[in-house]
Design goal:
- The chain is α+β, with helices and mostly antiparallel strands and about 210 residues long.
- The chain has one domain (about 20-190): Cyclophilin-like (Cyclophilin, Beta Barrel).
- The protein is about 15% helix and about 25% strand.
- The chain is built from three helices and ten strands.
- It has an eight-stranded antiparallel β-barrel. A two-stranded antiparallel sheet has the order 8-9.
- A hairpin with a 2-residue loop joins β1 and β2 (about 35-40).
- The longest helix has 16 residues, at about 1-15.
Length: about 210
């Protein structure tokens, strides 16, 4: 009986530690920060424009040396646009807002940050630390249109939770700036495994 209980406990722990698998065809990327790594799945099937945009910046190594410049405990962590000196980097043109894709701003999801204008997202993204229903698409005004979710954390949510409560202050004309910069060292796409070629089937002999 004791052995069975021990087996069930170990099995439950192993299951809890196993990260969820990405959907077939969805890219995976690793966000390496000064506080640890965050592995994310990108919802290419649900947010193709946002994912292509994000991976374009990844390919250009745009995010290297940027910071999470806005961190709000119990809400979200935002980064991908400023240097540690809070100098905003030049970006490509804004993209389509895909907030109508049906994906919700739940804890552990990635979404495109934007300004007040409906289609103003460029390089900046955020990771939800809590379920943030107020960021959902509820209408077609800039205020109600919402924020486009385009990915989720597969592993490293503990890193997100370490970033979220750091001490912040006002700096560079912005609030909620970490006192000690949380640096994005790099973001790299994980190479997808090539599918094994399908071998020809040998017909059965009569």
């Amino acid at each position: 009986m004791i052995s069975l209980i021990a087996f069930l406990v170990v099995t439950a722990q192993a299951t809890a530690q196993t990260p969820p698998a990405p959907a077939p065809g969805n890219p995976v990327a690793v966000i390496s920060t000064s506080l640890g790594d965050i592995t994310v799945e990108l919802f290419k099937d649900k947010a193709p424009v946002s994912v292509e945009n994000f991976l374009g910046y990844v390919s250009d190594r745009f995010y290297e040396g940027t910071v999470f410049h806005r961190v709000v405990k119990g809400f979200m962590i935002q980064g991908g646009g400023y240097t540690p000196q809070l100098v905003e980097k030049s970006t490509r043109d804004p993209i389509q807002n895909e907030a109508t894709n049906g994906l919700r701003n739940l804890r552990g999801t990635l979404a495109m940050a934007r300004r007040a204008a409906l289609r103003s997202a460029t390089s900046q993204f955020y990771i939800n630390v809590a379920d943030n229903s107020e960021l959902a698409h509820t209408g077609f005004t800039p205020r109600d249109f919402g924020y486009a979710v385009f990915g989720r954390v597969l592993s490293g949510m503990d890193v997100v939770d370490r970033i979220a409560p750091v001490s912040t202050h006002s700096a560079g004309g912005m609030d909620d700036v970490p006192v000690e910069p949380v640096v994005i060292k790099s973001i790299k796409q994980v190479p997808q495994k090539a599918k094994s070629p399908e071998l020809p089937k040998v017909p059965k002999l009569p």
